[in-house]
Hints:
Elements: H1 2-27, E1 31-37, H2 56-64, E2 66-72, H3 78-87, H4 119-125, E3 129-133, E4 156-159, H5 175-181, E5 191-193, E6 196-199, H6 207-220, E7 227-232, H7 253-275, E8 282-288, H8 315-318, E9 319-325, E10 333-340, H9 341-351, H10 368-372, E11 382-386, E12 389-395, E13 398-404, E14 414-423, H11 439-453
Parallel strand pairs: 1-7, 1-8, 2-10, 3-4, 3-7
Antiparallel strand pairs: 2-9, 4-5, 5-6, 8-9, 11-12, 12-13, 13-14
Helix pairs in contact: 2-7, 3-9, 6-7
Bound molecules: magnesium ion (MG).
Amino acid sequence: xxxxxxxxxxxxxxxxxxxxxxxxxxxxxxxxxxxxxxxxxxxxxxxxxxxxxxxxxxxxxxxxxxxxxxxxxxxxxxxxxxxxxxxxxxxxxxxxxxxxxxxxxxxxxxxxxxxxxxxxxxxxxxxxxxxxxxxxxxxxxxxxxxxxxxxxxxxxxxxxxxxxxxxxxxxxxxxxxxxxxxxxxxxxxxxxxxxxxxxxxxxxxxxxxxxxxxxxxxxxxxxxxxxxxxxxxxxxxxxxxxxxxxxxxxxxxxxxxxxxxxxxxxxxxxxxxxxxxxxxxxxxxxxxxxxxxxxxxxxxxxxxxxxxxxxxxxxxxxxxxxxxxxxxxxxxxxxxxxxxxxxxxxxxxxxxxxxxxxxxxxxxxxxxxxxxxxxxxxxxxxxxxxxxxxxxxxxxxxxxxxxxxxxxxxxxxxxxxxxxxxxxxxxxxxxxxxxxxxxxxxxxxxxxxxxxxxxxxxxxxxxxxxxxx
Length: 469
Ligand code: MG
């Protein structure tokens, strides 16, 4: 009897404590880390089949988590891709895409409009610490301070306002030569901490390492709050620079050196999460903003079996590596369903306890069922825009190209009276146009496109007035 009473007393004391502790761990929303490479192709990682670039950390992340085989960026170039990721919306809705200019440049005065709601703002409102470390490319704050990441929901910032090739130095020869030569003296990229310019030209050989140190510092400090780390790398966008520890190591040349250093960086971030005991409560995503810049030859990446690269609405321009890691929650697996960067907005906002804005169209789907292996996700359409124009659309396994055009160069867009049609699961390389035998599928896709178009109200264009080089 005495013993049972004692046990009961123990339970009365111990149970609430145990419940509180369980509640604390389940109530606390997950930390979110999004690592975004720049111009990394579908075929550039070991876990996506590259034969010589060594990416042991990303391969481990893929083996421990989920590797997507049909993961898309929502745009074919940098600026619109980032706008889509952070807002969950096709860039046409925010005015962050342009047929001719294509991306913001260092002379641009436009940027992500205030009315857009970013994932950082959503999570910050839920009590998250937020950081943007790396390349922004959603507005140049030296031209207008309201384009700074800290004006869009980020507490902490360290990095470049735009691509690393946008401040050619005086004496820089023709851009194409300069990109091929990869000489540090040709570039004058500004490195900022918050609004303060800390280095110009930035020593680009140290960028990946310094970004990584900042990211690890952000992860390890202030563990009392959940955090959102948005980590858009500068590389492997050309000009390419690797640190002395990585330069000359890869069989794939300088491009391989740079990707192997990015892989090292991912390893440091995952190690920091493991060492801090945060791995079980952190969702880490790795992806790329668009396909490989094939125009750059050996200093550009590779889209594997996919057609074309950066700048194009063929698969190689927009289908990118996509990895999701969350030990204990995401099972080691390969996901062959379609998912895209806009889904990260919706999924991460919901995981963080934020409501999805109801006063606008949000295109991203909540892919939590895919991540947790509990079900599928309904998706009517995936659109491939080039600038403000819809070039192609995917419905189920089928993709119709209404307009085609080489990624770069003077050739004008060709509008197809009968769209080209590909079955992306049978023919991921888009080699066999089967339009002639499937007119009914083309009609279905056209209906889905019409439905999509009815939801689009183009916003004031933010890239207008930008002077292309
Ligand atoms: Mg890019």
